[in-house]
Each structure stands twice: as structure tokens, then as C-alpha cells.
TrEMBL record:
GO terms for biological process: rRNA base methylation. One of its GO terms (molecular function) is 23S rRNA (adenine(2030)-N(6))-methyltransferase activity. Monomer. HAMAP family: 23SrRNA_methyltr_J (MF_00934). This is Ribosomal RNA large subunit methyltransferase J. The active site is at 177 (proton acceptor). One of its GO terms (cellular component) is cytosol. Keywords: Methyltransferase, RNA-binding, rRNA processing, S-adenosyl-L-methionine, Transferase.
Length: 291
């Protein structure tokens, strides 16, 4: 097995996280739904834009493979949804993207965030991504070899911001989606957002976060607000109550410079989605910091 090392303040540690164990779970559903909603909005204008993915993963996941089958996490998310005919246009668009990868009528593949971007963007839009894992990076890069206007780097996310931001295009979406394996990654995200925003302030930023321990989530959100960056929307979906004690009970997206339509789009989508994923499901969408 390949050992993947990264350096933290304390020294080298193993990059043990593999998204293939988690692809298509309830947290991916909410994250990718928000991603699709933002990209749909950016695609309304003719002018090309840039999609930047700081923690890109492998791009495409087999749900029938050993890793996904070991956890069956996709059954908490896309497994419950993919045959559903939605009223919400963004929910239906997301389901259609998954169906596009599974034309035989069996749920065999799930698209990661860079693949969703590749399926949605026009040839003139650009895609940039960084992924550190030595096994996931080549899988990701191989999917972009023939796509013009793409830059896929085996690079640390924060070094990637320095190397690739600002992009040539004036508009864009930056997705920040670390594994949060280490406690220090929360602080890294706060610094990373400030760094990226200082270089590309007009972009929309979407930061995914897990809900594991409520007090820690609120401290993280306060730290993001503490950057002084304006116009933040918080979207959260929890299939289980905080009190259930089952590890990750939900997840959220903090969106900087959200499209003005995003809050309403997500309220409508989550009203429809929440009971499909869990009878105990709950969601919230609110403006955290004003424009
Ligand atoms: C949650 S997964 C990404 C999933 C992907 N964004 C998606 O939605 O399909 C996080 C990824 O970040 C990678 N990673 C961890 N630390 C990183 C770093 N400092 N820079 C870049 N990638 C990193 C991991 O190898 C993993 O593939």
C-alpha cells in the first residue's frame, strides 16, 4: 500500500482519508446540491467562469467497489434518491447528473465535486483542482487530460490557492472540502479562506463542514465570521438530531458571496429532500453575515 504523507505543524502524518468510503452519503448530497445550485446560477451568464476545487478527491467513485460496499454510506444519501422525480429543479438536476453516469439503470458510479463541475461546465469555463493523495490524484488527473482550460495539481490546497488564484476569469466558485481528520484543519480553513478571498474577492466560496460536536461546529462558524468577510449564508442539513450520539449527525455549507437566489433555492430543495433521507431530518438556511 502507498503511504501518503503530509506535513502538519507537528511533523509528518499519514493521509489516511479516502473519499471512496463515503461517496454519495448524506453529506455528499447536501454538498453537491449546493454546488449544482451555485454552478446553475453562474451558467446563466454567457461570460466564462472558473471552478476551483481545493480538496478535489478522485472525481469518480465506484459504489459497487470494495470500499463503498464496506461502509454502504451511499445508502444514507444517493441510494435513497436516485430514482426519485423531484419537484425542486436543483434537486432534479443533481439526480439527473448521477443518472447520466449510470445509464444502465443500476447505481454503480457517483460523481465527485470535480466530475460534477466537468459534467456541467461549458468548454470555455475553466476547472482548477488540487488533490494531495498519491492514489487519488492520478485517478482525478486522468479524467481531465483531454479537457482544455483545466489545471489539476498534486498539490496542497493552500499552496494551490497561492499558485492558481486569482484565475484568468473574473467570476467563479471555490469549493473548500477538507477531510477534517486533524483538529488543525479547522484553523487551516479559516486561514485558507482569508488567503483565497484576498486574492479572488469576487468569487463565491462554498466551505463544507461536518456536524459531529455542536459546540465545536459553532466555534468554527464563529472563527469564519471572525475573518470579517461579508455576505455569508449558512446551510445545514442533519438527518439525525445532535443528541443521537452517532458520530457525524449532519453537515453544512458556509457560502460566501452566495447567488441572491441560493437561500430560496436551497429552502425549497431541502424541504423536499429532508423527509426523503430521514424521518428525523432537519435543516436550516440563514444569512450569517450581511452583504
Ligand atoms: C472530502 S474529500 C474531497 C471530496 C470531493 N471534494 C468531492 O466532493 O467529491 C477530501 C480530499 O482532500 C484531500 N486532502 C487532504 N488534505 C489535503 C490538502 N492539504 N490539500 C489537498 N488535498 C487534501 C484528501 O486526500 C481527500 O481526497
Amino acid at each position: 500500500m502507498l503511504a501518503a504523507f503530509k506535513f502538519a505543524a507537528t511533523g509528518p502524518f499519514m493521509l489516511s482519508y479516502r473519499h471512496s468510503f463515503h461517496a454519495g452519503n448524506h453529506a455528499d448530497v447536501i454538498k453537491h446540491l449546493v454546488q449544482v445550485a451555485i454552478l446553475d446560477y453562474l451558467l446563466q451568464k454567457d461570460k466564462p467562469f472558473c471552478y476551483h476545487d481545493s480538496h478535489a478527491g478522485a472525481g469518480l467513485y465506484s459504489l459497487l467497489g470494495e470500499q463503498a460496499q464496506k461502509t454502504s454510506e451511499y445508502q444514507t444519501g444517493i441510494g435513497k434518491l436516485w430514482q426519485y422525480q423531484a419537484q425542486s429543479p436543483v434537486l432534479q438536476h443533481y439526480i439527473e447528473l448521477v443518472k447520466q453516469l449510470n445509464p444502465d439503470g443500476e447505481l454503480a458510479f457517483y460523481p465527485g465535486s470535480p466530475k460534477i463541475a466537468a459534467l456541467m461546465l461549458r468548454a470555455t469555463d475553466s476547472i482548477q483542482a488540487s488533490e494531495l493523495h498519491p492514489s487519488d490524484y492520478p485517478i482525478l488527473a486522468s479524467q481531465f487530460v483531454r479537457r482544455r482550460h483545466s489545471r489539476i495539481e498534486n498539490m496542497d490546497a493552500w499552496a494551490g490557492f497561492k499558485a492558481m488564484l486569482p484565475p484568468l476569469h473574473k467570476r467563479g466558485l471555490v469549493l473548500i472540502d477538507p477531510p477534517y481528520e486533524l483538529k488543525t484543519e479547522y484553523q487551516d480553513v479559516v486561514h485558507g479562506l482569508s488567503l483565497a478571498y484576498s486574492r479572488f474577492p469576487q468569487a463565491t466560496y462554498a466551505i463544507w463542514y461536518p456536524v459531529i460536536e455542536r459546540a465545536a461546529v459553532e466555534a468554527f462558524i464563529s472563527a469564519l465570521v471572525g475573518t470579517g468577510i461579508k455576505d455569508m449564508l449558512r446551510i445545514e442539513y442533519c438527518p439525525l438530531p445532535d443528541s443521537s450520539g452517532f458520530g457525524m449527525t449532519g453537515s453544512g455549507m458556509l457560502v460566501v458571496n452566495p447567488p441572491y437566489t441560493l437561500a430560496d433555492t436551497m429552502r425549497t430543495a431541502l424541504t423536499e429532500l429532508s423527509p426523503l433521507l430521514s424521518p428525523q431530518g432537519d435543516f436550516s438556511v440563514h444569512q450569517l453575515v450581511a452583504e
